[in-house]
Design goal:
The chain is mainly alpha-helical. It is built from 15 helices and seven strands. The strands form three sheets. It has a three-stranded antiparallel β-sheet. A two-stranded parallel ribbon has the order 2-5. Strands 3-4 form a two-stranded antiparallel ribbon. InterPro entries: Peptidase_A22B_SPP, Preselin/SPP.
């Protein structure tokens, strides 16, 4: 969901905005704030998709097993998401003690901090593949051996989590939120294109209902109430202006609006790898097209929000844009039947039947792998 906080008095805000125009460095502030809202999430999904592809194309005997989401599971996502969202709403509404809010926030911060440490560890693994064996810190008295880069990741994640808890700084919030999205996108694979269609379609309806229709049913906007009730890095906060009173005002984008389409784009990246391995493609044409569509959908969300001055369910625009983009590319290239038929193997297959897995997984050359990190 994309939203912005309530504005101060319109007349007073207009006067302050007029005065602000004379300040240096504010001429392009409006454009910059909304450009960040489009570019930063797009950068996140692109990076996460390439990272997911890299991990998937590692040797099956050495890589970490990744759950594969089947189409039957995708049907349940909107139901489970609705249950969790309404559960949080009910807890905050009827048992909204400060300690309970702090406990929920602590759980979310811990999860995001784990994501940050895990992302640093993933980067460390990449460095090890390029540079050789890791450097270890050995503590004989404790019979403990820790890779220095792993230790660095834990320290950085802990410091950032503590910084966020004490200051609620928006930069710390965004770093933790981005880390959570990167972790989520690379930790789950979609089994097939149809699974992605089911997932995006179901969460399209989920987002529309909880943003537009929850207030008449439950007396308040459930999604907005949960977002405001828990001070946790469950959204991106992108500075918009000073609101005329010296306090930063933010546009906010829910992490689900990054992670959910990110799963679909990561699947398209794997399909691109298959086509490049078959020498029928020379670039990430599906992924790049979907990222452009994702950026256009975010820009559309911003424009609609500004026109109607109401929070918008970003997935209302994201889901059809990325689906139409992928379909258009597949139809234009005559690859739609192959795309629909393509599927990723189960984890059990990857572990128990390496020969069959090797026939199905994308075989990416070293040159293609280097392109993953460009």
């Amino acid at each position: 969901m994309l939203s912005s906080p309530q504005k101060p008095d319109k007349e007073w805000l207009a006067k302050s905005a007029t005065a602000a125009k004379n300040l240096p460095g504010t001429r392009f502030g409006w454009f910059q704030s909304h450009a960040h809202l489009v570019l930063l999430p797009a950068m996140c999904v692109m990076l996460a998709s390439k990272q997911s592809l890299w991990l998937f194309t590692e040797d099956a005997s050495s890589r970490t097993a990744t759950p594969v989401l089947q189409r039957e599971d995708a049907y349940w996502f909107p139901v489970l998401g609705s249950g969790v969202l309404f559960g949080l709403f009910a807890i905050l509404k009827f048992l909204g003690n400060d300690w309970l809010k702090q406990a929920i926030a602590a759980l979310m911060v811990s999860t995001c901090a784990f994501g940050l440490a895990s992302n640093i560890d993933a980067f460390a693994q990449l460095v090890r593949n390029k540079r050789g064996a890791p450097v270890y810190l050995r503590l004989p008295s404790l019979a403990l051996e820790i890779a220095l880069l792993d230790l660095l990741g834990m320290v950085v994640a802990s410091v950032l989590a503590v910084t966020y808890v004490w200051t609620k700084n928006w930069i710390a919030n965004n770093l933790l939120g981005f880390s959570f999205c990167l972790l989520g996108i690379r930790s789950v694979n979609l089994s097939s294109y149809s699974t992605g269609v089911v997932l995006l379609s179901g969460l399209f309806l989920y987002d529309v209902f909880w943003v537009f229709f929850s207030q008449p049913v439950f007396g308040s906007n459930v999604m907005v109430s949960v977002a405001k009730g828990v001070e946790a890095p469950n959204k991106l906060m992108l500075p918009r202006d000073f609101g005329g009173c010296g306090d930063l005002q933010f546009n906010m984008l829910g992490l689900g609006d990054i992670a959910v389409p990110g799963l679909f784009l990561a699947f398209l990246a794997k399909w691109d790898a298959v086509k490049m391995a078959d020498v029928s493609s020379k670039s990430f044409v599906y992924l790049n097209s979907a990222v452009v569509a994702y950026m256009i959908s975010l820009a559309t969300t911003v424009m609609v929000m500004m026109v109607f001055q109401h929070p918008q369910p970003a997935l209302l625009y994201i889901c059809p844009f990325v689906l139409i983009a992928s379909l258009a590319v597949a139809i234009a290239r005559g690859e739609l039947p192959d795309l629909v038929a393509f599927s990723l193997p189960e984890d059990s297959e990857a572990k128990g039947d390496n020969e069959e897995h090797n026939r199905n997984e994308p075989k990416v050359s070293e040159d293609d792998k280097s392109g993953v990190h460009e």
